[in-house]
Amino acid sequence: MLFSNIALGIEIYQNGFVWVLASGAKSSPVIERYETVFYPEDILKGSLKDPNILDIKALGSAISESYLKLLTDTKRVSMSIPDLSGRVMTLEIESLTKNKEEGTDQVKWKLKKSFPIDPNELHLDYQVLKEDDEGNATLLVALVSRSVITEYEELLLSSGLEPVKIDFATFNIYRLFSPRLEVQDHLTFVLHHRGSLSVMVFQDGVLDFFRSKLMGAAEIDPVRLYREINSSVLVYSDTKGGWRPQKVFYYSSVEQRPLFKSVIFEVSGVEPFLLDTDSFISSSKQQIDRSFLPNIMSALGASSRGLR
Q: Domain of 58: which CATH number?
């Protein structure tokens, strides 16, 4: 069964991994159990072209050991991988075919001259954001090397687990918030997770702009943060005849929130709203410190893909 009342997700990142066993519904998940493993040294390096996992045997053993602590017989796992393991972009394409397979070939052809990897070596998926009467479309495109996907799949398979869905960490967090964001007509969403900064702009409830930038895992430089957010706003504004943000939401770790709130206000001139997780995320068998929740959000977003 694709959907059930129990689902398992894992996020693997540069210095560790996080399990979340969840129940409930996609729109209101319940954290049944979670398990975190942290390493002082890097266990992987997100890359579009090169192998990501530095020691797949050791990491596989650690995953197998920590899985047992979840006390579940659920084997199907949805996974969050680093944003740097692939690319996400918006793309304009003319006369998009209705056939998904042919559409994928159109996108690959469009990217052929501008992308550093042979498109035939990529696993590529896209979502139509908007389309006019002539078939000209704006797409949200996600792509990753087939060899990188295989690497992560084999990591779980070596532990006796079944990889079901793989997505980027940022978008698995966005997945949790999407029911609350997409009902808004016009808004900007700023998200920071494990060194990746993403800016999304929605118009008429549809994602119209996406930009992601690696800020690094070190302490955030306020000047650079201002520059990167402001750059995204200016890029989008230039395409929209002087557009300015009217409503801004943000999400980050607890300790970074005062900085993000201040910088976003400086950039936009409007008071940003922190997205509230307490209103729709709860815990059951294992209580959780709410200040720790940002650390497991991506794994929770992954597990929610298996809920109804």
A: 3.30.420.40
pLDDT at 4 over 60: no
Residues 138 and 214 in one domain: no
Q: Is the pLDDT confidence value at 204 over 90? A: no
Percent of the chain surpassing pLDDT 70: 98
- Classify residue 1: in a domain, yes or no: no
Do 79 and 156 share a domain, yes or no? Answer: yes
Which of the listed residues 145, 164, 196 is the one where a domain comes to its end? 145
Q: Are 122 and 100 in contact (CB under 8 A)?
A: no
Total number of domains constituting the chain = 3
Give me 186's structure tokens: 């016009």
Instruction: For residues 89 and 221, state if they share a domain.
Output: no
Both 299 and 151 in a single domain?
A: yes
Contact 199, 188 (CB under 8 A): yes
Task: With a cut of 80, say whether residue 180 has pLDDT above it.
Answer: yes
Q: Is the pLDDT of residue 1 over 50?
A: no
Higher-pLDDT residue of 111, 22: 22
Q: What is the pLDDT of residue 19?
A: 98
* Distance in angstroms between the alpha carbons of the first and the last residue of the chain: 11
Closest CA to 237 of 198, 267, 215: 267
Torsion of CA 134, 136, 139, 143, to 10 degrees: 120
Cα–Cα distance, 69 to 21 (Å, whole number)? 11
pLDDT digit string (tens) for 106-152? Answer: 998 888 877 777 878 888 999 999 888 887 899 999 999 999 999 99
CA distance 5 to 179: 19
| Distance (Å) of CA 189 to CA 46, 82, 203 | 24, 19, 12
Q: Which residue range forms the structural domain that includes residue 236?
A: 182-274
